[in-house]
């Protein structure tokens, strides 16, 4: 590192970087100040000093909040990486004094959260009671993005659309089934091709969910469209809508068994190849994860045989 590089590093205030990231996440100086327990005027001064240090504007301020300039977007990317590295350093150094303790940040898809993680995380916590798991539920595409940006140590999600430069490890498989009201004409079938369902109204998940994306692509390849009657954000809501007669739907078999409740519903396995899905663990680099996160990854990958299916 040359003299100018050292001078730049000394002029960058890590607290200001953290506050800048908070403003970006909340979209407002006032909300960020409330979250970070600092006066709005003091936070605004920090941001102005940071802009002066860097010699460029980072935020456009307006009556409804703030939005990033191109320079601000670039800084946010680097700030998150720096803050993530500092947090990881703190956790790893604490391990020397306190043993295996700390926090693991995990983002997971709805399917993984409903079907597999409760039991697997429960057995892990019983074995490592000093480790806290911060679990957030997101769409698979959002899980991958969170891991790429350092917002999560690792993710658990469907990887059919690829993981980019991330690393992945096999975790589970699930199988999609068609959910229909009891007595529906399709309950007479022991298995069904997705194409045969397109004549009926569907209750669909969020447009960006991995299940709905796969359904939409399959319908497109068949030269047809899905008769979407209503969209919901959760599997339990889908069951309730189907029970109410609003259509039929597609979800993982094990998730259906867990969330069906007392609804008079039945499931019919889908025969399409895409209906069998991989759920993987994804990380930027498994070998550089904090020790606590590596312990959890090892526990999850050892939880069931690699070829187990839902």
What this model shows, in words?
- This protein is of the alpha/beta class and 310 residues long.
- It has helices at 3-11, 14-26, 29-36, 40-54, 70-98, 110-115, 117-127, 140-149, 210-221, 235-243, 253-259, 291-302, and strands at 59-62, 65-68, 102-108, 131-137, 154-158, 167-181, 201-204, 227-231, 249-252, 265-269, 276-283.
- Strands 3, 4, 5, 6, 9, 10 and 11 form a 7-stranded mixed β-sheet that branches.
- β7 (201-204), α9 and β8 form a beta-alpha-beta unit.
- The protein is elongated and about 75 Å long.
- The chain starts with a helix and ends in an 8-residue tail after the last helix.
- The model is unreliable at 306-310 (pLDDT under 50).
Looking at this protein, list some descriptive labels.
310 residues; alpha/beta; Arc Repressor Mutant, subunit A; D-Maltodextrin-Binding Protein, domain 2; 7-stranded mixed β-sheet; 11 strands
Please provide a brief summary of the model.
The chain is α/β, with parallel strands linked by helices and 310 residues long. Helices cover 45% and strands 22% of the residues. It has helices at residues 3-11, 14-26, 29-36, 40-54, 70-98, 110-115, 117-127, 140-149, 210-221, 235-243, 253-259, 291-302, and strands at 59-62, 65-68, 102-108, 131-137, 154-158, 167-181, 201-204, 227-231, 249-252, 265-269, 276-283.
Integer count of domains: 3
Count the helices. How many?
A: 12
Radius of gyration: 23 Å
How far is it from the N-terminal to the C-terminal residue, by CA?
53 Å
Average pLDDT reading: 88
Helix content: 40-55%
Proportion of residues in β-strands: 15-25%
Q: What's the CATH topology name of the largest domain?
A: D-Maltodextrin-Binding Protein, domain 2
| Name of the CATH superfamily of the largest domain | Periplasmic binding protein-like II
In terms of quaternary structure, the protein is single chain
Architecture of the largest domain, according to CATH?
3-Layer(aba) Sandwich
Structural class computed from helices and strand pairing = alpha/beta
What sort of overall outline do the alpha carbons produce when their principal axes are compared? elongated
Number of DSSP E strands: 11
């Amino acid at each position: 590192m040359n003299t100018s590089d050292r001078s730049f590093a000394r002029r960058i205030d890590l607290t200001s970087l953290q506050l800048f990231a908070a403003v970006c996440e909340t979209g407002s100086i006032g909300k960020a100040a409330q979250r970070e327990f600092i006066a709005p005027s003091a936070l605004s001064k920090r941001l102005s000093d940071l802009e002066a240090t860097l010699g460029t504007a980072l935020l456009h301020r307006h009556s409804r909040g703030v939005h990033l300039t191109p320079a601000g977007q670039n800084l946010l990317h680097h700030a998150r990486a720096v803050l993530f590295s500092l947090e990881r350093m703190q956790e790893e150094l604490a391990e020397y004094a306190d043993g295996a303790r700390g926090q693991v940040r995990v983002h997971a898809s709805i399917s993984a959260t409903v079907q597999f993680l409760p039991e697997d995380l429960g057995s892990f916590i019983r074995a490592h009671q000093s480790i806290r798991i911060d679990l957030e539920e997101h769409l698979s595409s959002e899980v991958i993005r969170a891991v790429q940006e350092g917002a999560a140590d690792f993710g658990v999600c469907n990887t059919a659309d690829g993981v980019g430069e991330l690393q992945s490890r096999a975790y589970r498989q699930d199988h999609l089934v068609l959910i229909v009201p009891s007595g529906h004409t399709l309950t007479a079938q022991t298995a069904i091709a997705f194409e045969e369902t397109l004549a009926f109204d569907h209750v669909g998940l969020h447009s960006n969910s991995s299940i709905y994306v796969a359904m939409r692509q399959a319908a497109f390849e068949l030269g047809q469209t899905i008769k979407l009657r209503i969209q919901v954000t959760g599997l339990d809501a889908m069951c309730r809508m189907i029970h109410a007669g609003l259509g039929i739907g597609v979800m993982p078999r094990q998730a259906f068994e867990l969330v069906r409740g007392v609804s008079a519903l039945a499931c019919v396995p889908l025969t399409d190849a895409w209906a069998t899905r991989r759920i993987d663990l994804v990380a930027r680099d498994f070998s550089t994860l904090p020790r606590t996160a590596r312990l959890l990854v090892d526990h999850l990958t050892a939880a069931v045989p690699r070829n187990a299916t839902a």
